[in-house]
Design brief:
There is one protein chain. This protein is an alpha+beta fold and 135 residues long. The protein has one domain: RutC-like (60s Ribosomal Protein L30, Chain: A, 2-Layer Sandwich). Strand 2 and strand 3 form a beta hairpin. The relative contact order is 0.23. It comes from Pseudoxanthomonas putridarboris.
Length: 135
Amino acid sequence: MTKRDVVFPAGRQALYERNRYSPAIRSNGFLFVSGQVGSREDGSPEPDLEAQVRLAFRNLNAILETAGCTFDDVVDVTIFMVDPESSFQAIWDNIVPEYWGNAPHPTVTGIGVTWLYGFQFEIKAIARLPEGAGR
């Protein structure tokens, strides 16, 4: 097996090592980002939902930047939400436009779940690596 080309954002490597997964892997011109939640530095959930979602996007952006990408390079997104019926519209209207930018937007799959390890929102993404960003 070839060695995985793991991308670690600054300051969070211990959190990933403790939980035994990679934040992102570069492979064949793409960056595959693990689900990002609104965790504080110690790994605990941000209690306010909108603040938690913003923090999840900031955590995603930290990984993208470390790999030489921006959100414009994201081609596919999967979001997981606890109780999407009561929270989806506020998140989609108030927070997502801050990060999504202008059309064309990435493809999106939204999944309602009953448990996210104490979190209310998680986002995972696939981005294309720009030329020169390590392929």
